Amino acid sequence: MGKTIAIYPGSFDPVTRGHMDIIERASKTVDHLIVGVLVNSAKSPLFTVEERVALLKQVTAQYPNVEIRSFEGLLVDFARASGAHILIRGLRAVTDFEYELQMSQTNRKVAPEVDTIFFTTSLEYAYLSSSIVKEVAQYGGDISAFVAEPVEKAIKQKFAQRNNNK
Fold it and tell me: Does the keyword Heme apply (predicted)?
């Protein structure tokens, strides 16, 4: 049997301690974990795709089997092109589950060889989302409990730049 390759997709804008928890746990479960940073033109992200990839590389450097790549288009196409047969998704609450179950079933219909594994978020991060982090940071709140130090610095720089441009 070949190497187990999985993809943990997301926008990671910014990458939170909740994301890091899933990355750490998933990296122990599979041989090779690709963190897929979604290029989503519909959203106006705080960080560019390149910045998100760079931040993720920085905060996942201690995991030798984790690779960071950006992608656009269908996740199952990215999975196929990457040789991955597993998608990793994090669940914070029941509300996440309904959406994620629907996506999982759709992906399975489109690509029967690709399966989804759900990781429930550790309780300490169950409330955490990138949106919450951005909102707290926007108003100068302490986000050190939510994100790794390099991410915190990058977020503060972004908001300082935005405020200087106003």
Answer: no
> What is the model's pLDDT at position 113?
95
Residue ranges of the annotated binding site for substrate are 11, 43, 75, 89
Query: Number of folded domains in the chain?
Result: 1
Residue 162 annotated among the catalytic residues of the structure: no
91 is a domain residue: yes
pLDDT per position as a tens digit, 68-123: 999 999 999 999 999 999 999 999 887 788 899 999 999 999 999 999 999 998 98
Binding residues for ATP: 11-12, 19, 90-92, 100, 125-131
Whether residue 85 lies in the annotated active site: no
**How many Cβ atoms are within 10 Å of 55's Cβ, its own excluded?**
24
pLDDT digits (tens, 9 = 90+) for 135-154: 999 999 999 999 999 999 99
Residue 122 appears among annotated catalytic residues: no
Radius of gyration of the chain (CA): 16
Known active-site residue 69: no
DSSP 96-124: HHHHHHHHHHHHHHH-TT-EEEEEEPPGG
